[in-house]
Amino acid sequence: MSQSSSSSDGYDIAFKVLLGVFAVAIPLSHLAWLGGNLTALLTGHPWAGYRPADALIRPDQLWPGLEETSILLGARILPALALVALATASGVWWSRHNGDFGGKNKRRVQGTAKARDIEPLLASAITAKARSLRPSLKDADRIAASDTGILLGNLQGTRTEIRMGYEDVAVAIMAPRSGKTTSLAIPSILAAPGAVLLTSNKAAGDAYTTCFDARSRVGRVWSMDPQQIAHAPRTMWWNPLADAKSLEGANRLAGHFLAASVDASQQGDFWSKAGSNILSQLFLAAALDNRPITDVMQWLAFPADRRPLDILRDHGFTSVAAQLKGTVEGPPETRDGIYETARQYASALLSADIATWVTPQKDVPEFRPAEFVASTDTLFLLSKDGGGGASALIAACADSVMRAATARAERTGGRLDPPMLAILDEAANVCKISDLPDLYSHLGSRGIIPITILQSYRQGQKVWGDAGMDAMWSAATIKVIGSGIDDPDFADKLSRLIGDHDVETKSTSISDSGKSTSISMRQERILPADRIRALPKGTALLFATGLRAAMLDLRPWYLEPDAGELSAASKAASDAITARAIAKAAPPQADFGLAV
């Protein structure tokens, strides 16, 4: 290195050291002058003139009457502590508002949305929107935050709350244990102003136990648990054939059994379509004759039974009867294959424990979707993963509720007020509504707010196909992406949606004439795919229609002020589930008493 270059580097170092000295000395001298004067006043001495340099270098000359201990405390120790506190506070503020995400401070990612970029999701805009959407709030002096929208979290690194409005429809893609239940489902249920529908495959320690007690104070809690996940006593039954008295309704019901049994890629083959058609025709016949849905299994067992044909003809469905007759009288091999396929789809109805939830029960109230959507009640729909026909009943009940809500909205000015919340947790496992992507296009405008929670984008593709999942993703006005995204293609898609930003690049060159520095700008991904995969737990990406992508700090229910009460209620409910499970598993006690 040349001598001139060495001299230049030395000057740079000296300049930086000088700046550092001034950065400490100037504020410290002013704090020493202020602290010394305050100490002087408290001890009865006069206020000294503005001489901060003397306060730092010659305090005994500035306050000649002060004792050495007072000077040490007031002009040395306290100013130094104050300077450290100011530096710490400045560092915390900087870390929250600048730099990369991650670590304990979760700093805002450069290039993602600031508060002004997502103003339609902030309190003032959401409140104004709620007044325009809900007639009941139009003249209210003060509106509770829960009445304005659903809390999604805080803008990262700030206390600014971000909410989705009661006309938005959402898709959340979050891996297990990434906060989908604790930070999204449970807080939304607890704050919902109207009826709430939840589908889930868990009970103990989940949304069911956490929210049951709180929602029971708002309205009635209904629980449909055909596979006894919560081991709850049966306090309701629901008639799935109530909406099957038309061919369209019967087709929808049969479609739920089809979707619960085979993936989207298999639903178009001959046997699947034929089996679904037979189910539809028999569901229609049972509904028209006010029979329980279990009668369909008897008809499936004996294809030659003419009662469904007679019922269809008696009610004017001659074309449907002709189709059924053609299948029954067709080649035996084809007929038997079709009926066996239909029997497999509806096999859950063979279980007496499951069938009792969907057939009339003495002294057990009937759940009526039309009444539910006009209330502030809560409906928990529970089914195990891969529940087959049982999950078909869960999907059918959820679908019936949403269609009842749509019908009520059409009769009451176009929207539900208060809105209904439908949280479809584990939707790809227990609530496979085939045309859910199509429903997304209009549910929000009816005051029906669905939040479909999936573990991955591919999970949705498996249920609804590529086109269906793409349609749902496009129709969702709110998209929440949590941690644990391990699909490289989807992570790259998200990275491209977030976009690029300008990054300042500094380059330094050294020559015989000295050192020169140049600054240039280049485009760089705001969040590359690998960093999306590494999103820390407790954070999420938010995509809202027409707005810049934002980073969220999630708000789990157990960190809220009322967490203690909720935790106690959840533990009590979980303990009750455990006790019921143990009681069911215990062998019956033998009676060894002697007969008299």
UniProtKB/TrEMBL annotation:
UniProt domain TraD/TraG TraM recognition site: residue ranges: 419-537
TM regions (residue ranges): 12-33
Gene3D superfamilies reported for this sequence: P-loop containing nucleotide triphosphate hydrolases
Localisation: Cell membrane
Alphabetical list of InterPro entries matching this protein: P-loop_NTPase, T4SS-coupling_protein, TraG-D_C
UniProt keyword terms in alphabetical order: Cell membrane, Membrane, Transmembrane, Transmembrane helix
Membrane topology: Multi-pass membrane protein
PANTHER family, sorted: CONJUGATIVE TRANSFER: DNA TRANSPORT
Identification of the protein by name: TraD/TraG TraM recognition site domain-containing protein
Organism annotation: Streptomyces virginiae (Streptomyces cinnamonensis)
